Amino acid sequence: MGAYILRRILYAVPILAGINIITFLLFFTVNSPDDMARAQLGGKRVTPQMIAAWKAEHGYDKPLFYNEKEKGVRHLTETLFFDESVKLFRFDFGKSDAGRDIAHEIRERMWPSLAIAVPTFLIALASNIVLALIAVLFRQTRVEKAMMIATVAMMSVSALFYIIFAQVIFAKMWHWVPISGYAEGAQGFKFVVLPVLVGVVSGMGAGIRWYRSIFLEQINQEYVRTARAKGLSERTVLFRHVLQNGMLPILTGVVVVIPTLFMGSLILESFFGIPGLGSYTIDAIRAQDFGIVKAMVFLGSVLYIVGLIATDISYAIFDPRVRL
What we know:
Blueprint: H1 2-30, H2 33-41, H3 48-58, H4 74-77, H5 80-89, H6 102-137, H7 142-156, H8 159-173, H9 189-202, H10 204-219, H11 222-229, H12 234-257, H13 266-272, H14 277-286, H15 290-318, H16 320-323
């Protein structure tokens, strides 16, 4: 197992390098260092000397991938890509183009993101599994047909509709909760209720259908027919045996998502004014702050790879056949 984990970690290095290259290419295809300097310096009255000074101060005066002025290996090492990539693989995120410490910002903003993401994840997981089991229990009946129609309708509606609808009804009309904002501690509960509700409801359609397909795949297995032959009720068979054996594929999706929870939700945090990592990334894209963008893309990629490795390990733990 140790050799397998080490091998997967080594495989992740070229993947992260490839993601880093793509991030550089995409960002600097849309933005030039001159555009970034103008955005940070603020306006039309920026002189070429000011732009050159800003680029030199932030390291953007170097070539992106290849430096023709240098010799030998320094053709590649004296570049913006090499300087920034080495820092990332040391998890040294440096400073943003505005001069703020990115690692400190991440540590501060991850808690509001977790305050939204963790309750949304747990409530959605429990509710989707229970509703999917109910749909399977009443399969080929009007109850299941009504549930499937409802899930398709929910999947067809944009997440923006759920956000706007919830803000108008619960915040503006009924005044149950604030329309946006965030506070720490017990005071923060009223600010996170609506985002969590929207997050759960907006993903419920796809979640119920996915879990339902997993349970339907298990319902015709031999162990289910054996349990029925022993005289067990359909409800007992479903909620005890089918649920237990269906947890392995469910575990795959769950373990992958867990490491990425603290990255936050881009849309929810932006619309509800949550100062988390999702809104942090959106603001960085708008401000053309490459330091933050590359750091968040790299961190998200690392967390997703950690989730995949954790999924494989959990398979070996919970399914003895995988170990054999």
